[in-house]
Amino acid sequence: MAMQTDVKSKYATASGLLIPFRTRIKAFFFGAATTNAGTVGMYDTFSISGTYARSTTTATVTAVNHQLEVGDSVFLDWDLTDDFYQVVTVADANTFTVTVANTGAASGDVTVYNDVLVISTVSTGNDVFNIIPGEGILARNGVRIYLESSVPATVYYG
User: Nearest-5° angle of CA 68, CA 76, CA 51?
Assistant: First the structure.
């Protein structure tokens, strides 16, 4: 007989640390956006410090042992727009690029969250509710949440 785990929930209305320990996401609810459609998602709390250099719409990020591949999603916390980005190129184990807006600082520090758990787009008319099959999505170190456009979220975990 498998071990039974109680499922708990956390409610959030702002981005930040949601669950500060290892857990499995069992389900999540993202409410409809109140202003414009927006991106919402969750990512593991593990981070890598690095730097970036931006030239027009390409940002080159240097972060030791980033463990990313072309096409991976990554959450970047930096002087440019904090958000989820898709990795465009990977030069080596320490350098990758993403596409950004042609505005903002030309260089600076960045915090790289390389373990994206869930990304979704929420519109003004539709809620998003997902039940994760099996044992759920493993967050090895904890869960951070990113919410745009005044989107509320409830995460079920255990």
Answer: 85
Q: Which residue has the tokens 């981005």?
A: 15
Tell me the mean pLDDT in the region 30-43: 88
Q: Is residue 4 part of a domain?
A: no
Do 100 and 142 belong to one domain?
no
Q: Which of 130, 150, 118 is nearest to 13 (CA)?
A: 150
Would you state the torsion angle of the CA atoms of residues 79, 21, 32, 41, taken in this order, to the nearest 10 degrees?
50
- pTM to 2 decimals? 0.92
Q: Which domain holds residue 79?
A: 47-114
- CB 34, CB 149: distance < 8 Å: yes
Does residue 73 sit within a domain?
yes
pLDDT per residue as tens digits for the range 23-35:
999 999 999 887 7
